[in-house]
Specification:
heterodimer, A: alpha/beta, Rossmann fold, 2 domains, elongated, B: 369 residues, mainly alpha, globular
């Protein structure tokens, strides 16, 4: 499969161009091809001032051609000074002319209005300033094209304002900027044009005024507004009990992961979900509920009784299960066997001094391997050798085994085959019918509509709306995700 | 057409089974093979190596003597350390290099207690069990110090334990005011030599006891599961309700207990202490034992019995070399040659290659001798 296919992309002098798309759309691939990190299979790159197609085979070539990139994670050296960072790898010969270097750096910093001195250690600057220094370095290399890959994800609001100021200055100087971000607000604040990618293909290039937010969202998700038939009618799992007693109620919950305080509640037998674009704070919300991130404020009630959830074990003891978004990084314990992975959570709840007997553990594992049809050579196979879908089923089995009252599934269907996806969706509805409550998060709105009876919409790390009943339509969801200028 | 199709199927199954058996055996394959080769070598070269005789010791008791007894006896400290080192390696993906120094501290504490501050004591001034208990507690504190640096300050284990590695022997000397106390009470030396009327060296019993204790602990608690889970994926462990930091700390404290027991055996062999030479370089052998046992030094899954076997292999090798009168100064060089072979053979890259070649492991291992 190609990660990127027949994509045309044009960047004009002195414009800020947003590159948009969901995860796996091909944004990073496009950037990496442009900067010579990945080789291209076909196509040409033309740069003004260079005759014919530019040859870009390595990041060094890209730099020479005037393309500079500032990555999401700062790739400078925090223990060197600002000036050293700006000139590192660019000095000729073995000797360094410190005076010229510091002087040159000072001039650039001043001209760009960056509040840092050349002699300062980079590590002592704020993240925003470090990011700006990285940009200054790029600018000083006389770049014509500046690529900013998610520069704002670790900045606070004021820092973002500063960064945007700098971007506008550069734009005025004729630099073309490619801006990759997940924040819609920011796109509409600074950008002139938007190119949307989806599944490795070009969806289109638009002038910002011509593309209202809701249209942008629909382009990114690949649903035309017109043919977004309301599929709610087909589903029978949705509109279950809006009466039952609340299982979990959270008020003003806020965690260290940088989300705005939010309220949340779920009833017995209800399936609800968080929706929003990637990075909108969906996962952070459920992590706060589960105690996976440090909870800074807010209160949680379980079955009407107030509980304190400070760490995952507290949540588990309240009867909450959590299937994390990052299966490999947070879900499986790779080298352990399928059996050990399945019993892990229940075993931890049972306690250090009360291990399950081998026979008991085998019974549990066999039961769930059979129930969820997990395809594995044996229960002793290391989980890492299973396919993604089967790994995910093991994690599901792990939480089902704890018999939770409330199960949080964060992207349980990502990266797994269609058959397993449907199995998982069915399972969710079955659990709800058995009186369990489930929060289901998915990037695929179809899936959410099929399973959830209520959706909380997140945008830019804030809960911006709640949809239920007749409002549960793709049109409405997208409009709420987009916010701002409703179509 | 049907039969040729069926045949491969059954044939495929058989290698699968044997491969599976091999997999379960694989981790212990290297230490077991190494031990077998050492035994074989000695059997062929000079069977008298295995002779066990009864001799009278200095107290006039009949005791067993011979190379095998010497291996079992002298490996004790190493085996006990290797157990703790395996747990630390599994949970934190690093090793504690301060165990030799901490053994000296524990020994020094015990000696100070039983001598009651005298330089030359003829009788124990304190109940031996209490003294050993205090030694264990002190050693656990040092383990907790190391563990806290590793778990809560995210310092690399080798760097964190470098502190005690450097300072430990001075601390041990300071505990006894820089004096070299000697205890002449026979009862003190029971643990390091022989119990009256029992012909087998006491360290062998202590080692068996420690192995039994850890077998029980691993069977009746979740120490093994938690340690491996934390070592493999701390994020996921945390989301399953574990406290990865606490578990790392715990393994260092457990190692502290092992270190104290080993330190006690070492000190009671002679009843005296040499701060700079006591248990010198034992940390390297302990780490080697873990590696020889087929455990990844980067942590995660572990097999404690592999490390125990590894420790015996190291000691068996040393004793064999002594037997052939390799001068003690040249000993490390000979040891290094064998160790290089063993470690290269147990490297996953080589093992995969060997597994893909039929019967190749046997051939390759033969080259070791």
């Amino acid at each position: 499969m190609r990660a990127l296919q027949d994509v045309d992309f044009t960047l004009r002098e002195g414009e800020i161009h947003a590159l948009m798309g969901e995860n796996g759309a091909g944004k990073s691939t496009l950037i990496k091809v442009l900067t010579g990190v990945y080789p291209k299979d076909g196509g040409e790159v033309h740069i003004s001032g260079i005759d014919g197609a530019a040859v870009i085979r390595s990041p060094q070539d890209a730099q020479n051609a005037g393309i500079s990139t500032v990555y999401q994670e700062i790739t400078l050296c925090p223990n060197l000074t600002v000036a050293e960072n700006m000139y590192i790898g660019r000095t000729k010969g073995a000797m360094t002319n410190w005076k010229a270097m510091n002087g040159g750096a000072g001039k650039i910093l001043q001209s760009l209005g960056i509040p840092a001195s050349p002699n300062q250690q980079l590590g002592s600057c704020s993240i925003a300033v470090q990011q700006m220094v990285a940009i200054a370095r790029a600018v000083d290399m006389e770049c014509k094209v500046l690529i900013l890959d998610e520069p704002t994800s670790s900045l606070d609001e004021q820092e973002v304002v500063k960064l945007f100021g700098l971007m506008r200055d550069l734009k005025a100087k004729g630099v073309g900027i490619i801006f990759v971000t997940h924040f819609l607000e920011q796109v509409y604040e600074v950008c002139d044009r938007i190119t949307v990618l989806r599944d490795g293909q070009l969806v289109g290039e638009y002038v910002i005024e011509d593309l209202p937010r809701v249209q942008l969202v629909s382009k990114m998700l690949g649903k035309e507004l017109d043919d977004m038939a309301d599929i709610k009618g087909e589903s029978d799992g949705g509109a279950v009990s809006l009466e039952g007693s609340p299982v979990l109620e959270a008020e003003g919950l806020c965690s260290s992961a940088g989300i705005k305080p939010f309220d949340f509640s779920i009833r017995k037998g209800e399936v609800n979900g968080f929706t929003g674009l990637l990075g909108s704070g969906r996962s952070e919300c459920v992590r706060a509920i589960f105690g996976a991130d440090h909870v800074t404020s807010g209160s949680v009630k379980m079955d009407g009784r107030s509980v304190r959830i400070k760490k995952p074990l507290d949540a588990m003891k309240c009867g909450i299960g959590y299937l994390p978004e990052d299966r490999k990084g947070d879900g499986i314990v790779g080298d352990l066997s399928v059996r050990e992975n399945i019993i892990l959570a229940l075993q931890v709840m049972k306690g250090f001094f009360r291990p399950f007997s081998r026979a008991q553990a085998e019974d549990f594992a066999d039961e769930y391997i059979k129930l969820l049809e997990i395809k594995t050579a044996s229960a002793d196979t290391p989980i890492k050798s299973l396919s993604g879908g089967n790994q995910q089923k093991c994690i599901l089995a792990r939480w089902l085994l704890t018999d939770p009252k409330y199960l949080i599934l964060d992207e349980p269907t990502r990266g797994i085959d269609i058959g397993t996806k449907i199995e998982i969706q069915k399972l969710v509805l079955k659990l709800a019918a058995e009186g369990k409550s489930v929060t289901f998060i998915s990037s695929e709105i179809d899936e959410m509509l099929r399973t959830c009876s209520r959706l909380i919409v997140m945008r830019d790390r804030k809960a911006v709306g709640e949809l239920k009943g007749d409002d549960l339509t793709q049109t409405k969801i997208m409009a709420t995700i987009a916010g701002g200028d409703e179509a | 057409m049907t039969t040729p199709v069926k045949n491969p199927e059954t044939k495929v199954k058989r290698p699968d089974e044997s491969l599976f058996k091999r997999l379960t055996r694989q981790q212990l394959f290297i230490p077991v093979a190494a031990l077998a080769l050492l035994v074989l070598f000695n059997l062929i070269a000079d069977p008298s190596f295995f002779m066990v005789t009864v001799k009278e010791n200095s107290l006039g008791n009949p005791v067993l003597s011979g190379n095998i007894i010497s291996v079992l006896d002298n490996a004790s400290e190493l085996v006990i350390l290797a157990i703790g080192m395996t747990l630390v390696t599994a949970s934190s993906g690093g090793q504690d290099i301060s165990v030799g120094a901490t053994m000296t501290i524990a020994g020094s504490v015990i000696l100070r207690m039983v001598c009651g501050g005298q330089v030359n004591a003829d009788t124990m001034q304190m109940n031996l069990f209490l003294a050993v208990f205090i030694g264990i507690v002190v050693s656990m504190c040092f383990g907790a110090f190391n563990g806290a640096l590793v778990a809560y300050f995210n310092i690399q284990p080798m760097v964190a334990t470098l502190i005690i590695y450097t300072a430990g022997r001075s601390i041990a000397a300071w505990i006894n005011n820089n004096q070299l106390p000697i205890i002449n009470d026979v009862a003190f030396k029971y643990a390091g030599t022989f119990l009256p009327g029992i012909p087998v060296p006491t360290p062998v019993f202590i080692t068996v006891l420690m192995i039994a204790v850890f077998w029980l602990v691993l069977k009746f608690t979740n120490l093994g599961l938690y340690t491996q889970s934390v070592g493999i994926n701390p994020n996921s462990s945390r989301l399953n309700g574990l406290n990865p930091r606490m578990i790392k700390l715990l393994t260092y404290v457990i190692l502290g207990v092992c270190v104290a027991v080993a330190g006690y055996i070492r000190i009671s062999r002679s009843g005296s202490i040499n701060y700079s030479r006591n248990a010198e370089n034992i940390e390297m052998d302990a780490i080697l034992a873990v590696a020889l046992g087929g455990n990844a030094l980067s942590g995660g899954k572990f097999n404690i019995y592999g490390s125990i076997l590894g420790a015996y292999v190291i000691r068996f090798l040393t004793t064999t070399l002594y037997k052939y009168e390799v001068p003690s100064t040249a000993l490390p060089a000979y040891k290094a040659v064998v160790v290089i072979l063993l470690v290269v053979l147990s490297a996953p890259v080589v093992r995969e290659k060997l597994a893909s070649m039929k019967k190749a492991p046997a051939k390759a291992v033969k080259e070791v001798s």
